[in-house]
Amino acid sequence: MKTASMAATNNVDRVTILVPVLNEQLALPATLDRLCSLDPPADEILIVDGGSTDDSVRLVQAAGFRVLAAPKRGRAAQINFGVREASSEIICVLHADTILPIDAVTVMRTAMADGRTSLASFTPRIAGPQGTRWGSTCHNWIKTWYVPLITRPHLFMIGVRLLFGDHAMFFRGKRFLEVGGCDERLAVMEEADLCIKLARFGKVRMVPRWVWTSDRRITKWGRWRANWIYLKVGLMWAMGARERLGDHYPDIR
C-alpha cells in the first residue's frame, strides 16, 4: 500500500494528504492520478471514506492507497478521524475534486517552515471542461477578505483570512488536535471555522500557487445561484446557525 515515502527525514517535515470521500467516483480518478505523480511524493496519503456506495473505495484501492472507514459520516468528522490517524506533523485536507500542483509537498513544507504560520492554503482556480471560471475564481479570492471583515473584524484587523474547503488548506496536526479539530455539527464551512480556531497560534494565509478545483456546483446551480448559496451559508455560519447549514447547501457529486 502507498502509505509513506522516504522524502522527509524527520516528523516536522512529514506531510500527510488527507482526502475525505463520499461517493466521489467521478472526481477521484484525476485526483488519484495527481497524488501518484507528486514530486516529491507525500509521506502519507489517507483516504477517509464516509460510507460510499459507489466505486470510490475500489478506485482508491486500485490506485494503491490506504482507505480508512470513518466511524461517522460527514466531512468534519472524517477530517477529525483522519488527523487522529495521521503520522505526519503537516496535514493537508484535500477535497476529492481538487487537483494539487506537482510540487505541492515542497510548497507546504516551505510555508509551514515559518513558525508564525498556523494554517495556510493554496489559491483555488475554479475550472471545468469549458475552462476557468474567472469571475467565480476572483470572487472566491476576494471573499477570503470580506467575509472576515464582516463576520470577525477583530481578526481581519490582524490579517487573518477565512479560507474554504476548495483551497486545499494545511496545518500542523498537533495544533489541530489542541483546538479540538473541526466542529462536527457543520455540514459545510468547517474549514473556515478552523481558521478562527487556529488564528490564536499565528497567521492564516493563502500561498500564491494554484490548485484546480471542479466547477461542478456552478455547472449544476448556475453562476448566480452558486454565489448566492456560498454567501448565504457563510452569513448563516457567522450568525451561529451551525446545524442548519446542510439544508441550504445541496449535495452535488
Descriptive labels:
alpha/beta, single chain, 9-stranded mixed beta sheet, globular, disordered N terminus, 10 helices, 253 residues
Structure report:
The structure is a single chain. It contains 10 helices and 9 strands. The chain has helices spanning about 30-35, 55-65, 75-85, 105-110, 135-150, 155, 175-180, 190-200, 215-220, 225-240; strands at about 15-20, 45-50, 65-70, 90-95, 100, 115-130, 130, 170, 205-215. α1 packs parallel to α2 (about 55-65) and α5 packs parallel to α10 (about 225-240).
> What percent of the residues sit in helical stretches (DSSP H or I)?
25-40%
Counting DSSP H or I runs of 4 or more residues, the number of helices is 10
Radius of gyration: 17 Å
In percent terms, what proportion of residues is strand?
15-25%
Order of helices and strands: EHEHEHEEHEEHHEHHEHH
Q: Please give the alpha-carbon distance between the first and last residues.
A: 27 Å
Low-confidence regions: 3-9
DSSP summary, beta strand count: 9
Major β-sheet profile:
9 strands, mixed
What general form does the structure show? Answer: globular
| Assembly of the depicted chains | single chain
Structural class: alpha/beta
